[in-house]
Design brief:
6 helices, alpha/beta, six-stranded mixed sheet, 14 strands
């Protein structure tokens, strides 16, 4: 089975449309989106609901017309308050599945999604969880924000809050649906495993990844894992777009920033285990 994997589009409709054109032109019937789907450089409480209810609904309709299945989930830049609306819109279609903390089987392959991440320096902390011995990065703001339906709840002592109130990554992973056959299982986690240079920052020299996710995949040994979150990783000096944990292949294609003229995605042949990172021009 051949599929396209993309992540971190952040509401860039030109890139969404280009990916659809690529799928149609190559007769590819499955697209997987790894998170951070919605606009972020905006008033998110106003723009993100419109993007889901208008653009994504129309996009999913176009996918349906072309008989393309879409597996997707929101990411940490997509507000928690969008979860119900996003899920409701996905449920309007029999070709679209919200895979966050869910399992979907396509042609015998089991896809399992998970969209939580570890802490980062930015103020909005939606979908952040902790893990043992985590070392906090220097924060960009003196406070943290957790979104609600209309605004944000402000947290002044974020480190105390995070270490005492947030769940642990290994608990989240342990509650995911169980696969039947590891050799035909694909995990989609917005954050990459630690230690594989799939979350490599350009400045400073940090590999952003989860030890718990690494240990989980090392134990489970799925066929393939797909990631995002750190856009620049594959294009840094030390970063990679593909690596392995024993017999498991792990991929973070990376992505260009909003309104950049290049789209990055992976062309994946699951049957033959062939993985290609593609960079194509788009027209804004």
């Amino acid at each position: 089975m051949r599929m396209l994997y993309v992540t971190d589009l952040h509401g860039d409709t030109i890139k969404y449309n280009k990916l659809l054109t690529i799928a149609v032109d190559n007769d590819i019937k499955l697209i997987v989106n790894g998170g951070d789907m919605l606009p972020k450089q905006c008033n998110r409480h106003m723009e993100q609901p419109l993007f889901v209810s208008q653009y994504l609904r129309n996009y999913f309709t176009a996918l349906k017309k072309e008989d393309i299945t879409c597996l997707a989930m929101l990411g940490n830049d997509d507000l928690l308050s969008m979860d119900k609306l996003f899920n409701d819109v996905c449920n309007e279609f029999d070709n679209v599945y919200n895979i966050a903390q869910n399992k979907v089987t396509i042609d015998g392959y089991e896809f399992i999604g998970m969209n939580y991440i570890l802490d980062h320096p930015f103020a909005c902390k939606d979908r952040v969880v902790m893990e043992d011995n985590y070392i906090f990065q220097r924060q960009f703001m003196p406070y943290a924000l957790l979104s609600n339906d209309f605004d944000y709840d402000k947290i002044n002592d974020w480190i105390e809050y995070a270490t005492t109130k947030l769940p642990k990554m290994y608990d989240i992973l342990s509650k995911l649906p169980k696969p039947q056959n590891a050799d035909k299982t694909i995990y989609v986690t917005h954050m990459a495993p630690a230690g594989l240079k799939l979350g490599q920052l350009r400045y400073p020299d940090l590999d952003i990844g989860s030890v718990d996710i690494y240990n989980f995949f090392k134990e489970k040994q799925p066929l393939l894992t797909l990631h995002g979150h750190i856009h620049e990783s594959p294009d840094t000096k030390l970063g990679k777009w593909i690596n392995t944990i024993d017999k498991t292949t792990c991929i973070n294609t990376g992505q260009t920033e909003i309104n950049n003229d290049l789209l990055i995605y992976a062309d994946i042949d699951l049957k033959n285990q062939k993985y290609t990172r593609e960079i194509v021009s788009v027209s804004h």
